[in-house]
């Protein structure tokens, strides 16, 4: 990687140019081995090359998409989707529930979040349905952890309806029951605590804090610059509550739950969880058995309310109508981001009709 021009591989495209913080340009590999499985005999890739641009400003990205200077755009918000379809109704759009997001982690080694009643009270104090509907226009998932709502993970997914009533309660807005739980935990008048956050999430977390205030919990927001925030939670120096990273793409890795896991910001140290993780790993390659074992531990994980998953909004992938055989993919399998590019082709007639240029 110190001399990328000398690198080699077996992929569909070869690295042709790299401009730091600006662009990466790939050209077609003329000796690529794969043919199109849907069109036997057709050599892949179809495209002569791919150019990936790094455009930090969202408004600039949207402007480039509107003027057809970009063919494909990833991970934009619902507001961006609504806006661009008003000016460019011909664009194709696909909602995607992205695997990397954030959630409310509550440390089990600090008061007052070491008490499960406190954690459940904080969960029940959030009106997640209202947050979903008013903040995201209804386009978000309230329940998508520890197993995401992906078809690939359906064998491991435990529907809310199949969970015990006492577990389902934490997803329901019930401030009176939350106050009762606080009293049972020894905090009839509430308490004061802190939440550490990345500055990018200040507005959203302020909304959570306003809900907690209604049950007598006074939460001070401690805001950090992005890099400092990552360093804070990775070094385990954050306070009782942190709005930190939560990955959901590989449930069997128990990413935020294992004692030794990097993302274990709740400082969970639970033998039952660690044993379940080991059992799931040992069951490989019997994926059916892995799914069975995983489903067994899901109710226990949720009962402990170590993590509060706030509504996770859908993001939107957008592409031009001349981008053929593309359906909104972001990753063609774990760790295979952008591998779908080998199957895409450009319908020059459609492009010329819309833009007046080939």
| Major sheet size, sense and barrel closure | 5 strands, mixed
Spatial order of the strands in the main sheet?
A: 9-8-10-6-11
Query: What count of structural domains?
Result: 2
- The CATH class name of the largest domain reads Alpha Beta
- Give me the Rg, rounded: 23 Å
**Average pLDDT level:** 93
What fraction strand?
15-25%
User: Per CATH, what is the topology of the largest domain?
Assistant: Dipeptide-binding Protein, domain 3
Number of helices: 11
Please tally the β strands and state the result.
Answer: 15
Helix content, binned percent: 25-40%
**CATH-derived architecture of the largest domain:** Roll
Task: Report the end-to-end length measured between terminal Cα atoms.
Answer: 35 Å
Shape call: globular
SSE topology string: EEEHEHEEHHEHHEHEHEHHEEEEEH
In terms of structural class, how would the helical and strand content be classed? alpha+beta
CATH superfamily label of the largest domain: Dipeptide-binding Protein, Domain 3
